[in-house]
Amino acid sequence: MGDLTFLATALEAIKERDLYRQLRPIQGAQSPRVQMEGKEVILLSSNNYLGLAEHPALREAGIRTLERYGCGAGASRSISGTMELHRALEERIARFKGCEAALLFSTGYMANMGLLTTLAEDGDVIVSDEFNHASIVDGCRLSRAEVWVYRHRDMDHLETLLRRSAHRRRLIVTDGVFSMEGAIAPLPEIRRLADQYGALVMVDDAHATGVLGKGGRGTGEHFGMTGRIEIQMGTLGKALGGFGAYVVGTQDLIDYLINCCRTFMYTTALPPAIAAMALAALDIVEKEPQRRQSLWENTGYFRTGLQKMDFDTGMSETPICPVLIKDNALTMEADRRLMARGIFVQGLRPPTVPPRGSRLRATLMATHTEEDLNRALDAFREVGRELGLI
Ligand SMILES: *Cc1c(COP(=O)(O)O)cnc(C)c1O
Hints:
Distance between the termini: 53 Å
Number of helices: 15
Radius of gyration: 21 Å
Structural class: alpha/beta
Strand order of the largest sheet: 4-10-9-8-7-5-6
Largest sheet: 7 strands, mixed
Bound molecules: pyridoxal-5'-phosphate
Shape: globular
CATH topology of the largest domain: Aspartate Aminotransferase, domain 2
């Protein structure tokens, strides 16, 4: 047997820097209240923004489809055929997003990796916000294009880079909603610069789908820019409560991806029941705007509560509400003390966040009650005072 002691050594070093991670079991669905460590706690760490992950309509759609179409998709769609539900969901998503066509991916991670490696090649440049999601960073790393990183939402810096570029093609990529900050990308300015310097725009709507915009259609709708973003992706696993991801754009974009995108071509397609759940989720997103309204009311209530206590919530303007602590050990101590009071807010440390950027990242759900939020705010006040954070 080979020598694996280097792993134990590396794990020790991770522990010494207060960066060691352990998975934490919860019982039951991603509901506002879950069973954890033998007691009921309020879940403030889920991206199940609209409460659809446990919704009866999604469950029923999944069960019905399992019975009729079975479990797996058998292979990639270029090999074993496109199932009816894949097509139905793609048509539905394209309409929902106001785009010509859509393509399903197994995860948002794979959609981003696939898009960046397929669309930006040798001789091109990807211009990427420094706080973009890890899957964008990895897509940039794998792409044969050059990668230039601009300071977070800094449009002057973006312009400087665009002006300097003499590449064949320029692709600006940004999260619509930044997953660790809860800030929204300044898309109108990005569009203006892209037009001025002849660049393409790619937006990651993972946290915006179902959340931002009057109809929950994402960052484009939020800014009244539907139809003015060349490349958009989003996931079906966050506000839509299921699993999987999509890309939308022109028919040519989608046809090109079907032909050339390796993370689409060489992986098994989504199970049909998963597609059926996403269709059921889109019905609810379109028919029940009150869910989105509750989500935003909860968000405002909770964030204002934290800000009144003088917690640093950064640039948050969405249901992602970070509480900046900076120190790794202190962040995890706050996490433990909140858990002891029945509140689950995951502490996040590098490399998920930048160095000295450790934080508690609270995410709100439409299904949290005022009592849930009051209990959480009380716990934050107590822990904040105990640890000298406020
Ligand atoms: C979660 C996330 C992804 C990845 O999506 P999955 O479907 O979970 O793989 C991509 N981008 C951003 C900004 C995300 O937050």
